[in-house]
Amino acid sequence: MSVAAPELTDVQAIVEQVWSSFLGEAEPLLPQPVPAGAPFPAEDAWSAAITVNGTDGGWSGMVTVELAEKVAFSLTAEMLGVEDVEDGDVADAVGELVNMIGGNIKSLMPGPSALSLPVVAAGRAAHSSEAVEVARFDGLWIGQPVRVSVHVTSIGEN
Amino acid sequence: MTVRAMIIDDSRAMRSILRRILTGLEFETSEAGHGQEALDQLTAGPVPDLCLVDWNMPVMDGYTFITQVRANPAWRNVTLMMVTTESEQSQIVRALAAGAHEYVIKPFTPDAIVEKLEILGLTSKGIPA
After folding, report:
1. Among residues A132, A154, B19, B107, which one has the fewest Cβ atoms lying within 10 Å of its Cβ?
2. CATH code of the region A8-36+44-157
3. Looking at CA atoms only, how far is residue B57 from chain A in angstroms?
């Protein structure tokens, strides 16, 4: 059975659009291909997840963002327009980031569906053992890793 | 006359981005973290000229907020602009039918916000520095 999934080029376009809209063009987000299955290449990371819950045949999935800690703090400072940020600020900004990316990925997929509120954590993203990765974008921003992944919970449900 | 705008979004980062755009246009701004908080502020006054409203928020979402505002004749002059990641056509139609005047999809640029404000006749100024 085929798995309904967004195209990687579409995911990348969405991520790059979010980045350029809110973080400017001065420091671009550069694609950085990483082999499938490779762990996120940063020891200190922040992550956020948002789920798309389909109804009546609509697509369901989860979008996660993983950021090196330096990326998380830098983008938060940029979005808030301040120099010093705290963990609560980072949670807020990273949550909004995954909200924007997840919302735009949702629009690519068959509806109807609803977007959850984001969940943010200091650390790597966790996934259900049944989750299947269907698209992933890896990039570098300010020389540090950024990863956006799309998972579906069960192949049979999509 | 100074335009009074209320920014309704559960993200402080997003409120900060929108606040910088609006204050650059010399708007007066206030903020709320969800629809119910915004309704409470409307009730307490002063009533803003413009509300920028996110869709997905805890406690009360933006769609419910718009229907509540439109149900109260005292707030009929409030201009409502959705600013949200909800980009499906059906959602846009639903929000406009409920009483939203304009709809901006995140991510946006400052130019996109200013363009919508100009359409609404709320500013003729350029992009803030």
Report:
1. A154
2. 3.40.1550.10
3. 7
Band of pLDDT at residue A3, cut at 50, 70 and 90 = low
**Is any Cβ of chain B less than 8 angstroms from the Cβ of A13?**
no
A100 to chain B, any CB pair closer than 8 A? The answer is yes
Between chains, do A79 and B106 touch, taking CB under 8 Å as contact? no
Q: How far apart are CA A48 and CA A100, in angstroms?
A: 12
Show the domain range for B78.
3-126
Share of chain A above pLDDT 90, in %: 73
Mean pLDDT of A131-145: 93
Q: Is the dihedral of CA A54, A57, A58, A60 positive or negative?
A: positive
Mean pLDDT for the stretch of residues A151-157: 67
pTM exceeding the 0.80 threshold for the entire prediction: yes
Taking CA–CA distances from B91, the nearest residue in chain A reads A112
Summarize pLDDT for A4-62 with one digit per residue, the tens: 889 999 999 999 999 999 888 788 999 998 888 888 888 899 999 999 999 999 999 99
Instruction: Judge: B16–A80 Cβ closer than 8 Å, yes or no.
Output: yes
Residues of B near A (CB-CB distance < 8 A)? 10-14, 16-17, 20, 56-58, 84-88, 90, 105-109
B58: left (phi over 0), alpha (psi -120 to 50) or beta: beta
Q: How far does the CA of residue A16 sit from the closest CA of chain B (Å)?
A: 10
Tell me the CATH number at B83: 3.40.50.2300
Give the start-to-end residue ranges of the domains of chain A. 8-36+44-157
DSSP assignments along A47-75, one per residue: EEEEEEEE-TT---EEEEEEEEHHHHHHH
- The whole-number pLDDT of residue B129 equals 38
